[in-house]
């Protein structure tokens, strides 16, 4: 892993898209590309024109490198003091503050301390690394102002396949144990079941397991997302699964590269998640994040018949009217 250290300009930024997702009003990022190297990562498509890629001579869709910013806590501290309008901070929105390269500089801990030193800010932590438990002492001091979430992308029995796609993240078991510990310490938690990938984490039984787990540890919200079709992520997932012997899972990932198949997968996923949340939790806690661009009109109409917990995103006014079926 090549580690590039690059000073960015931003500290805390407004994030209208995350506000629409009901996640946060602001975002903090400790880098550009994180060292977890998740194969399905769609953030690269969003930042592909960033000048850092020219400076380091790497493709935004390349692998084997990461970019972090050891100086970001200073700018976060400045912005936390300076900004008048305060709200919830997503930490992070396209990188991971507890990825291995960030742990070296304690970026997660230092940014948390800088934010929480100022009143009226709240923080939503999202990570795939169990190292966040090392900072539970900081969070505990401000327990009412911090929501802890570790992204759970599969059930423990599918760790082998998940590890292929998330090679440097903590195992699913480690993430779940960290969530259990957070809850046991009295910290506020939320569930991020994202993404629930076809052939790996989208069966009714697997969804039930994950939703029941979220309910048992008292999560305040349950966020769910399908795997994003943007960029080369699906193709890369299919290739990695295929070459490592997960041929059935690779075929499932390859199948949803076609629009109609992706649309069917998402529609089934919403239906099964709703059933499970109604059975084990409270549907008012569900936040299913959905960009409807790739839905067929038939599936869009089907979802609209019962879109409890669905947050419609993007430019399309999908919730205002039912479009005619083709």
Provide the structure class: alpha/beta
Overall mean pLDDT: 93
**Fraction of residues in β-strands:** 5-15%
User: How far apart, in Å, are the first and last alpha carbons?
Assistant: 48 Å
**SS elements, strand count:** 13
The percent of residues in helical segments reads 25-40%
Strand order of the largest sheet: 2-3-6-7-8-9
Mind telling me the C-alpha Rg? 19 Å
Q: Report the sheet with the most strands, covering strand number, pairing sense and barrel closure.
A: 6 strands, mixed
**SSE succession:** EEHEEHHEHEHHEHEHHEEHEHHHEHE
Assembly state (oligomeric):
single chain
> Unreliable runs, pLDDT <50, ≥5 residues?
317-326
- Overall body shape: globular
What is the count of helical runs?
14
Structural topology:
Elements: E1 2-5, E2 12-14, H1 16-20, E3 26-28, E4 31-33, H2 43-46, H3 52-56, E5 65-68, H4 72-82, E6 88-91, H5 100-103, H6 107-116, E7 122-127, H7 136-141, E8 146-150, H8 159-165, H9 172-184, E9 188-189, E10 191-193, H10 204-216, E11 222-224, H11 233-243, H12 247-255, H13 259-280, E12 286-290, H14 297-304, E13 310-312
Parallel strand pairs: 1-5, 3-6, 6-7, 7-8, 8-9, 10-11, 11-12, 12-13
Antiparallel strand pairs: 2-3, 4-5
Helix pairs in contact: 4-6, 10-13, 11-12, 13-14
3D structure, described in words:
Helix 11 (233-243) packs antiparallel against helix 12 (247-255). The strands form three sheets. The protein has a six-stranded mixed sheet. A four-stranded parallel sheet has the order 10-11-12-13, covered by helices on one side. A three-stranded mixed sheet has the order 1-5-4, with no helix packed on it. It has 326 residues and is of the alpha/beta class. It contains 14 helices and 13 strands. The longest helix is centred in the last third of the chain and has 22 residues, at 259-280. It has helices at residues 16-20, 43-46, 52-56, 72-82, 100-103, 107-116, 136-141, 159-165, 172-184, 204-216, 233-243, 247-255, 259-280, 297-304; strands spanning 2-5, 12-14, 26-28, 31-33, 65-68, 88-91, 122-127, 146-150, 188-189, 191-193, 222-224, 286-290, 310-312. Strand 12, helix 14 (297-304) and strand 13 form a beta-alpha-beta unit. The radius of gyration is 19 Å and the shape is globular. The model is unreliable at 317-326 (pLDDT under 50). 39% of the residues lie in helices and 15% in strands.
């Amino acid at each position: 892993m090549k580690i590039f250290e690059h000073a960015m300009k931003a500290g805390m930024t407004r994030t209208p898209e995350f506000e629409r997702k009901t996640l946060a009003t602001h975002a903090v990022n400790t880098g550009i590309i994180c060292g977890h190297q998740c194969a399905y990562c769609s953030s690269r498509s969003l930042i592909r024109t960033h000048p850092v890629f020219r400076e380091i001579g790497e493709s935004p869709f390349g692998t084997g490198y990461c970019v972090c910013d050891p100086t970001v806590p200073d700018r976060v501290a400045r912005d936390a003091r300076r900004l008048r309008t305060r709200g919830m901070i997503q930490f992070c929105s396209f990188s991971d503050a507890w990825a291995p390269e960030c742990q070296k500089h304690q970026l997660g801990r230092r940014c948390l301390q800088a934010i929480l030193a100022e009143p009226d800010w709240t923080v939503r932590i999202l990570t795939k690394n169990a190292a966040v438990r090392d900072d539970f002492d900081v969070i505990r001091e401000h327990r009412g102002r911090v929501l802890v979430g570790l992204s759970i992308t599969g059930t423990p029995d599918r760790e082998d396949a998940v590890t292929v796609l998330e090679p440097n993240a903590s195992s699913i078991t480690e993430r779940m144990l960290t969530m259990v510990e957070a809850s046991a310490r009295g910290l506020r938690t939320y569930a991020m079941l994202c993404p629930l990938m076809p052939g790996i984490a989208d069966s009714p039984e697997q969804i039930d397991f994950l939703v029941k787990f979220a309910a048992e540890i008292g999560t305040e919200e349950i966020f769910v997302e399908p795997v994003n079709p943007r960029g080369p992520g699906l193709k890369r997932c299919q290739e990695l699964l295929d070459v490592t012997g997960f041929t059935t899972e690779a075929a499932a990932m390859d199948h949803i590269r076609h629009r109609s198949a992706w649309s069917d997968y998402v529609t089934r996923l919403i239906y099964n998640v709703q059933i499970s949340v109604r059975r084990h939790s409270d549907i008012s806690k569900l936040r299913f994040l959905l960009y409807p661009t790739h839905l067929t009109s038939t599936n869009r109409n089907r979802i609209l018949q019962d879109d409890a917990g669905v947050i419609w995103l993007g430019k399309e006014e999908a919730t205002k009217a039912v479009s005619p079926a083709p």
